[in-house]
Amino acid sequence: MELQLHVCDNEYKSFQNDHLRDLWPAVGAYCNIEECGKNQFFRSFNEYKSHFGGVHKEKLTLYTCQICDLSRRKLQVLKKHLVKDHKCSEDRYRCIEVANKNFIDPKDVLALSVGDVKEREEAKQLREKVEERKRKAKEEAQETRYAGGGYYANSGSAAEYVCLPPDPNYVKTSGTDYGRMYGGEFDTNFFASNADNEDVPCALCRTDRATSVIMIPGKNTCYSGWRLRMPWISGFRTS
Fold this sequence. Notes:
Layout: H1 9-20, E1 29-30, E2 41-42, H2 45-55, E3 59-65, E4 71-72, H3 75-86, E5 93-99, H4 117-142, E6 145-149, E7 162-164, E8 182-183, E9 201-202
């Protein structure tokens, strides 16, 4: 037996809105209409919703004051105007539809959706995790580190500098001689004003979108949030 289901346009549109729209990503997004390009990044769903309603709707609804003909797109804004400026009832307005001069046709692309209660909660938790990672990354970036290497007048030193932490672990070894590490200093004001004789800072850069594996000179332990992966090959840097 063949079953045929007939639905009206409004029912189908409602089904589209409830089931076919992509979810709003917790970290924010660009407009999902290709013609908009990547010109503006929306951090909140309300910003995106305001943009979509103001650009991708062919007709705009305006609320107009019946007393002074002031028009506003948001009804609550016009109601405040009626009460504050005219001291009258909030219902003294009329609705009109006008053509959207900035209209960009979304074609068959649907606006993003914020999802149901469970999906919004999951998105909120993900957003909080992302913000926490950003906060930790910012704190790590603010830690001062210093460029170090061999003495400029000594031959045979390593060609490249290393980025030294401000809190090295001092461990006594069995050797009779010492390795020598010298901090880098500016010898000119070319790079910044009053930089002459100041220490050369450096930064450890990483991304939260990929696995980070690094060697930290002067340390045989890990900072908070990091894990020692190959303790069997930890040792001493030679110079």
